[in-house]
């Protein structure tokens, strides 16, 4: 079958539908860190149908087409790539959308496709086992390793030399409300285990505060007595969440003068500074693994610093998409490097 000068089997041509879908999913993940599970259902159904179609074509072709060119690569794809994706998700290596994307690719691309463009056949570099989803996975890992190196080069070129230069960069505090990622600072210095910015947005929405409000009167809002009597829904912390909050974070019953801050010297005496524990108890959630101490440390940093280091936490769907594109064009990067 030939479409726009590209010759391939019908199943292989239909598999190219995955490219724009994965491009959209990667963009969506960068912008919102949210990808609906509904995205993967049509691709899963398409993959299952194409798998059955290709199996029938291989069976009727005779020779080694059924065993070596279809059955073995498909068994590896479903028996190795699928469990790897599940285990990485189970142990927290990546999110649910990333695992679902790899599961879809295991069903959609079990065997190496072939696309003839004139005298050139893509992919250029194939492997002996012939499992295309495994090639996408290894390409993804190599791209994922290259991203921190590229980030470090970018920081070094800008003169930003720091222990976290491989995983983040500095941004102004006023960009934080519209930024996804993780804070890489605590009051004692740089750290890889800082506050998740989605959890920060959940806290601010719950209190009915903006980050600017908090920075303007930090001593006031450290006092848990200023927590609102009727908190707002925290949402899931997405930048794009449609939310309307009420209040300014509460008022001190003993402080009718709203312009007067509590005594800063008493802040250390609060049992629950910032109301961090009360927030997590009220929402009955860990808020992306956030502890009261992590939330308090992040708020202390953001209340004072003009510029902070954050990790953008590049969504794994980005290297998955890049790994897919490389696989369709070049083929297997690791095989090409080693052999």
TrEMBL record:
Pfam families: Arc_PepC_II, Peptidase_A24
InterPro entries membership: Preflagellin_Peptidase (IPR052218), Preflagellin_peptidase_C (IPR009655), Prepilin_IV_endopep_pep (IPR000045)
GO cellular component, one term: plasma membrane
KW Hydrolase (keyword) present: yes
Signal peptide range: none
Domain Preflagellin peptidase C-terminal: residue ranges: 295-333
Domain of life: Archaea
UniProt keywords, alphabetically: Cell membrane, Hydrolase, Membrane, Transmembrane, Transmembrane helix
Transmembrane annotation, as ranges: 39-58, 70-89, 101-120, 132-153, 316-338
EC code(s) of this entry: 3.4.23.43
Enzyme's top EC category: hydrolase
Membrane topology reported for the UniProt record: Multi-pass membrane protein
GO MF terms held by the record: aspartic-type endopeptidase activity
Subcellular location: Cell membrane
Region (Disordered): 220-271
Domain Prepilin type IV endopeptidase peptidase: 17-129
Entry keyword Transmembrane: yes
PANTHER family: PREFLAGELLIN PEPTIDASE (PTHR36506)
Protein name: Prepilin peptidase
